[in-house]
Predict the 3D structure of the following.
Amino acid sequence: NVVANKRLDLLIDAVKELPDNIQNKVHLNICGNCRMNKEAFLQQIGDCKSISTYFKRIPDEEIPELFTKHQFFMLPYQDVAQSGPHMIAYNYNLPVIASDIDGFAERVEDGENGFLFRVNDKESLKAAITKAAMMSTSDYQKMKDNLKTYVAENNSLEAVSKKYIEYFNSVL
């Protein structure tokens, strides 16, 4: 869902303000049901060719394609309780560009398995997008490899089971 705390407005402005040589390497797809005034977003986007919108509910069967055809998942949120999309991105080995808020900062190792930027800071977001756009193929593959290792060590069935066993042993 497209909701205010996800700061889509900030992301749109950041992409639109990227220098041409960076903006030409970036394409932002905004996907999800928009309960807010989507006309305001469309007006904000204007004629920017680097941004496409798909304001609709995304059926489950379309999720894999969305997460596998992109290079980064954008999380410009100003606050978050739980982020299902973040963990879905990790499930598909998709690095994220995320604000440095609690909920993201403990899972994103900046420059290693994704990028962090200062929350609500457009210039910091633009810098993170620029880093991502300028990555070499080998650096991007290394980031994906790092993310795969991170998920295996922290989110895999084996890792989570081990944490539960350690917890239960500590209380016995």
